[in-house]
Amino acid sequence: MSQLLLVISSFPRSVEAQRVFHLAGTLLAQGRAVALVLLQDAVLAAVGTGSAQDSGGLTALVSRGVPVYACEHDLTLRGFAPQDMVPGAQAVNDQRIVDLMLADGTGTLGCF
Protein backbone atom coordinates (compact mmCIF):
# COMPACT_ATOMS: atom_id res chain seq x y z
CA MET A 1 0.00 0.00 0.00
CA SER A 2 1.57 3.27 -1.06
CA GLN A 3 -0.95 5.71 0.45
CA LEU A 4 -3.43 5.65 3.31
CA LEU A 5 -6.59 7.69 2.73
CA LEU A 6 -8.20 8.75 6.01
CA VAL A 7 -11.90 9.58 5.66
CA ILE A 8 -13.43 11.83 8.33
CA SER A 9 -17.05 12.88 8.77
CA SER A 10 -17.04 14.16 12.38
CA PHE A 11 -17.08 17.78 13.50
CA PRO A 12 -13.44 19.02 13.51
CA ARG A 13 -13.26 19.45 17.29
CA SER A 14 -14.69 16.00 18.04
CA VAL A 15 -12.50 13.38 19.70
CA GLU A 16 -12.73 11.22 16.58
CA ALA A 17 -11.55 13.95 14.22
CA GLN A 18 -8.77 15.02 16.57
CA ARG A 19 -7.51 11.43 16.68
CA VAL A 20 -7.42 11.31 12.89
CA PHE A 21 -5.47 14.56 12.61
CA HIS A 22 -2.99 13.22 15.17
CA LEU A 23 -2.82 9.85 13.37
CA ALA A 24 -2.11 11.59 10.06
CA GLY A 25 0.76 13.52 11.63
CA THR A 26 2.18 10.37 13.23
CA LEU A 27 1.98 8.37 10.00
CA LEU A 28 3.60 11.21 8.11
CA ALA A 29 6.43 11.34 10.64
CA GLN A 30 6.94 7.61 10.04
CA GLY A 31 7.37 8.26 6.33
CA ARG A 32 3.94 7.03 5.24
CA ALA A 33 2.00 8.72 2.48
CA VAL A 34 -1.25 10.03 3.92
CA ALA A 35 -4.22 11.95 2.51
CA LEU A 36 -7.41 13.19 4.17
CA VAL A 37 -10.94 13.19 2.81
CA LEU A 38 -13.35 15.45 4.69
CA LEU A 39 -17.05 14.64 4.51
CA GLN A 40 -20.15 16.03 6.19
CA ASP A 41 -19.24 18.22 9.22
CA ALA A 42 -15.53 17.47 8.79
CA VAL A 43 -15.42 19.89 5.82
CA LEU A 44 -15.57 22.70 8.39
CA ALA A 45 -11.93 21.96 9.23
CA ALA A 46 -10.98 22.98 5.68
CA VAL A 47 -12.90 26.22 5.96
CA GLY A 48 -11.06 27.08 9.15
CA THR A 49 -13.45 29.60 10.65
CA GLY A 50 -15.10 29.88 14.03
CA SER A 51 -14.89 26.92 16.38
CA ALA A 52 -13.40 24.74 13.63
CA GLN A 53 -10.46 27.08 12.97
CA ASP A 54 -7.28 25.04 12.36
CA SER A 55 -8.70 22.07 14.19
CA GLY A 56 -6.05 19.51 14.91
CA GLY A 57 -3.45 21.41 12.95
CA LEU A 58 -4.95 20.83 9.53
CA THR A 59 -2.96 23.77 8.18
CA ALA A 60 0.24 22.19 9.51
CA LEU A 61 -0.64 18.90 7.79
CA VAL A 62 -1.26 20.72 4.50
CA SER A 63 2.05 22.57 4.85
CA ARG A 64 3.78 19.21 5.36
CA GLY A 65 2.40 18.00 2.04
CA VAL A 66 -0.67 16.05 3.18
CA PRO A 67 -3.34 16.25 0.48
CA VAL A 68 -6.69 17.36 1.92
CA TYR A 69 -9.85 16.80 -0.10
CA ALA A 70 -13.17 18.28 1.03
CA CYS A 71 -16.48 17.17 -0.42
CA GLU A 72 -17.73 20.10 -2.47
CA HIS A 73 -21.39 19.14 -1.94
CA ASP A 74 -20.94 19.12 1.85
CA LEU A 75 -19.23 22.52 1.70
CA THR A 76 -22.15 23.94 -0.28
CA LEU A 77 -24.73 22.49 2.13
CA ARG A 78 -22.96 24.32 4.95
CA GLY A 79 -22.93 27.63 3.09
CA PHE A 80 -19.31 27.64 1.93
CA ALA A 81 -17.59 27.72 -1.44
CA PRO A 82 -14.27 26.14 -2.45
CA GLN A 83 -12.57 29.54 -2.32
CA ASP A 84 -13.44 29.73 1.41
CA MET A 85 -11.08 26.85 2.20
CA VAL A 86 -7.61 27.07 3.70
CA PRO A 87 -4.84 27.24 1.08
CA GLY A 88 -3.85 23.82 -0.14
CA ALA A 89 -7.15 22.06 0.54
CA GLN A 90 -9.07 20.95 -2.55
CA ALA A 91 -12.82 20.78 -3.07
CA VAL A 92 -13.75 17.59 -4.92
CA ASN A 93 -16.95 16.01 -6.17
CA ASP A 94 -18.26 12.58 -5.18
CA GLN A 95 -16.77 10.87 -8.23
CA ARG A 96 -13.30 12.17 -7.37
CA ILE A 97 -13.67 10.86 -3.82
CA VAL A 98 -14.56 7.41 -5.16
CA ASP A 99 -11.59 7.57 -7.53
CA LEU A 100 -9.28 8.43 -4.62
CA MET A 101 -10.61 5.52 -2.57
CA LEU A 102 -10.20 3.03 -5.42
CA ALA A 103 -6.81 4.20 -6.67
CA ASP A 104 -4.18 1.47 -7.01
CA GLY A 105 -1.99 1.20 -3.94
CA THR A 106 -4.38 3.16 -1.73
CA GLY A 107 -5.79 1.86 1.53
CA THR A 108 -8.86 3.59 2.91
CA LEU A 109 -9.61 3.97 6.60
CA GLY A 110 -12.97 5.36 7.69
CA CYS A 111 -12.48 7.42 10.85
CA PHE A 112 -15.94 8.70 11.54
Question: Describe it for me?
Answer:
- The chain has 112 residues and is an alpha/beta fold.
- The chain has five helices and five strands.
- The chain has helices at 15-29, 44-47, 58-63, 72-77, 94-102, and strands at residues 3-8, 33-38, 68-71, 89-92, 106-110.
- Strands 4-3-2-1-5 form a five-stranded parallel β-sheet, sandwiched between helices.
- Helix 1 links the parallel strand 1 and strand 2 (33-38).
- The mean pLDDT is 90.
How many domains comprise the coordinates? 1
Q: How is the CATH topology named?
A: Hypothetical Protein Ychn, Chain: A
Helix content: 25-40%
Oligomer: single chain
Tell me about the biggest sheet?
Answer: 5 strands, parallel
In the CATH hierarchy, what is the superfamily? DsrEFH-like
* Low-confidence sequence ranges: none
Task: Give the H and E element order.
Answer: EHEHHEHEHE
* Name of the CATH first level: Alpha Beta
Query: What's the shape?
Result: globular
- Name the structural class: alpha/beta
Cα gyration radius (Å):
13 Å
Record field, number of beta strands: 5
Q: Output mean pLDDT.
A: 90
The CA-CA distance between the termini, in Å, is 22 Å
Compute the number of helices. Answer: 5
What is the architecture at the second tier of CATH? 3-Layer(aba) Sandwich
